[in-house]
Each structure stands twice: as C-alpha cells, then as structure tokens.
Amino acid sequence: LSEEISWLSAQEQNLFDVEVFNRLVLALGTDKAIEFAESYIEACQQEVSDLIKALDTKDFAKIEFSSHKLSSSTGTYGNMRLHYINSYIEECATNENMPPELITSDSLKGLQVIVDYSIEALEKHLKQI
Amino acid sequence: MTKKKIFLIDDDPILGKTVAQMLREYTDYEIKFFSDIKLAISRIKKHKPDLVLVDWVMPEMTGLDVLETLKADKDTKDISVFIMTGKKKGEDFLKACSYDVDGFITKPVDMLYMKNRVMNHLQVKYNLVEA
Q1: Model pLDDT for residues B67-99, shown as the tens digit of each residue
Q2: B88's torsion region: left (phi>0), alpha (psi -120 to 50) or beta?
Q3: Residue B73: how many CA atoms within 13 Å on its side-chain side?
Q4: How does pLDDT run across B41-65, given as a tens digit for each residue?
Q5: Is A66 in the B-facing interface, judged by CB distances under 8 Å?
Q6: Is A27 in contact with B111 (Cβ distance < 8 A)?
Q7: B35-B109-A20-A109 Cα dihedral, nearest 10 degrees
Q8: Residues of A with Cβ-Cβ distance to B25 under 8 angstroms
Q9: Dihedral (Cα; A68, B39, B96, B110), 10-degree rounding
C-alpha cells in the first residue's frame, strides 16, 4: 500500500476544511459554489450508500469505483477526512487487499457516522456564507 | 478569432459541472461538459475541440480507452488529451504516455494549476503550429 495514505493518517484529517471550500468559492463564485455543494451533498450520500453495500459484499470492482468517485468529489468540496478515507479504500480495492477490520459492521457504521458529521459540517458552513 | 474549445468528460456529473464552471470562470475558452462518454466521442469527432480533458476511471470506457480511441483516429489524433486522475502509480502514467497523452491533471483538481497547465499547453501548441 502507498506510504502516503493510511487509515490512521486519514483519521487525522479535518471533517471539513474551510480553506479548500474557499478556493472553490473563489473559483466559482458564492452562488454557484453553494448550488454545486448542495448537489454534491445529495450525490455523496447516495454514493456512500452504494459504497457501504459494496464493502459489505466485498465487491472489489464496485468498491474501487465508488471510492474513486467519492475521493475526487469529497476532496473538491473540502471533506478531507472522507477524501483520504476513500483514497485509502480505493487503493485497498485496487490491490484486492481489504483489511478485514475495515469491513466489520462496526466499521461500516463508523464510516456512515463520519459521512454524516462531514456533511453536517459542510451544511453548517453553507448556512454561514 | 474563434474561441478555443475544451471538451470535458467525467462520469460524475456534479464534479464535471463544477470543473467545467471553474474553467469558464477562469478562461475565455468554450467549455462543453459530457457525462456520456460515447456521446462525447461522437461530438469530439464532429467538432474537433482543441483539448479534451477526460477522467481516468469511468464505468463504460476508461480515460485511457478514450485517449487510445482518439489518438488512433487520423481525424482526431492531433487533438490534445489530458487525463484527470487521482491515481498515483508510475506504471499507470507510463501506460498513458505510451498512448501519447498530452498531460495529466491531478484530482481533486487545483483550479489555478489546471488553468495554467491548459493555457500553457494550448499556447505552446498553437505557437508551434503557426511557426
């Protein structure tokens, strides 16, 4: 596995990085950034649901595909912990080497909690700008 | 002078629209976004954009497949193709280089880097063509 990404290093990342999101606002303008972020939130929740199902059934192709999509979008919208977690999961799936502790029912529930908190942090920021 | 055209292909419509909008904000190029890969290829063959930005990992065809298709066709082989990727392995990049990829953009996209990379590439390309 890559030395750059690990499960532990992913956990050290912010749920929401306001600097990353501010760069998006700078590039798109506030209105467009909010509009796209709202679409992102909806799509992210659906994709995470697909990812959790794929992790539960150890469908490596679907895991790789879903985590890849999530890795890009979460990183773009500032949900950095999810970005690193998904990069890590994608790499594990690519190598078909998924650590068993990552796919226990507790881990999957934990992933959903991280998603919920990450989205909540982004939503909170959207209300403030 | 006609506007330069950039076609963007990404199966993730939200991310694709985000990147397309950023490019519109930062450049005066004509930007078209496609989430349907086959439609994108047919439009590329018809409209011959100056540059194609394509995501690497997609369900029906990968960015590499799109690159290979365009570079193998005499009508589209001169169109610049950049692959957008979160992949980090050297072997993946070497594979793309063997198909004459013109550049890579790392995902998540850094807009300033992308703008500079795309503009510099097109400037060099057209200065060389005109010279």
Answers
A1: 999 999 999 999 999 999 886 667 778 888 888
A2: alpha
A3: 16
A4: 999 999 999 999 999 989 889 999 9
A5: no
A6: yes
A7: 60
A8: 27-29
A9: -50
